[in-house]
Amino acid sequence: MLDTTANPLLEISQLCKWYGNFSALHDINLSVAPGEKVVICGPSGSGKSTVIRCINQLEAHQHGKIIVDGVEVTPGMKRIEQVRRDVGMVFQSFNLFPHMSILDNLTLGPVRNLGLSRKAAKERAMGYLERVHIAEQADKYPGQLSGGQQQRVAIARALCMKPKIMLFDEPTSALDPEMVAGVLDVMAELANEGMTMICVTHEMGFARKVADRVVFMDAGEIVEISEPEEFFNAPKTERAQKFLSQILGH
């Protein structure tokens, strides 16, 4: 059972971001409890990915506060690598090193950034490869794997850093349709095990099944936040109703 009384693991307040004169994000407020699963959805260009990229400062924000586990994240902060260790991220593209084996892709971060021995890092990596059902591919190279397999490797690589929260930026959008289900199944397993997750996705079946809350964005703003049943069955706003009718076909 989700403990909503616990201190938030992530707090975003009055977050704003501009690209020149273009307002990409306006007054974003979101609090995520430990163990909570939040799905962010909305039309293309609504600012969904920008929000999660600001959390670990892949994008710098100009106004507002982002606090991860009690630490405020600010542009140019000296402790940003510590924050990034706590915040795992899985991208649309897999971002694996093509010249390194799957196992070496997974052990690089724990050895370099966490100070693990090669042996301990390998044991951890194999454990997470088993968790995402791909341990038999450990000695292969990314180019030898399908897109769905590479994305599961990317998830395992993020988990190897033992993050407190996982961010997913449309992790299935670059995959062939037949590969999507396997990646979503792995994400659902993580959710069931209590991982704190924020996921930007158009996979509404996943949102309905896994999310504790659905955040709907449009034009750089949060339009509504609801539990999945309410969002899908009785969206509060006309913009959300239109989005759902387009994406679900009713």
Can you characterise this structure?
By secondary structure, the chain is of the alpha/beta class. It is built from nine helices and ten strands. It has helices spanning 48-55, 80-86, 102-114, 118-131, 147-159, 177-192, 204-210, 228-233, 238-248, and strands at 10-19, 22-32, 37-41, 63-68, 71-72, 87-90, 165-169, 196-200, 213-218, 221-226. The strands form two sheets. It has a six-stranded mixed β-sheet, sandwiched between helices. Strands 2-1-4-5 form a four-stranded antiparallel β-sheet, covered by helices on one side. Strand 7, helix 6 (177-192) and strand 8 (196-200) form a beta-alpha-beta unit. Helix 4 packs across helix 5 (147-159) and helix 5 packs parallel to helix 6 (177-192). The longest helix is centred in the last third of the chain and has 16 residues, at 177-192. The radius of gyration is 18 Å and the shape is globular.
Layout of secondary structure:
Elements lengths: L9 E10 L2 E11 L4 E5 L6 H8 L7 E6 L2 E2 L7 H7 E4 L11 H13 L3 H14 L15 H13 L5 E5 L7 H16 L3 E5 L3 H7 L2 E6 L2 E6 L1 H6 L4 H11 L2
Parallel strand pairs: 3-8, 3-9, 6-7, 7-8
Antiparallel strand pairs: 1-2, 1-4, 4-5, 9-10
Helix pairs in contact: 3-4, 3-5, 4-5, 5-6
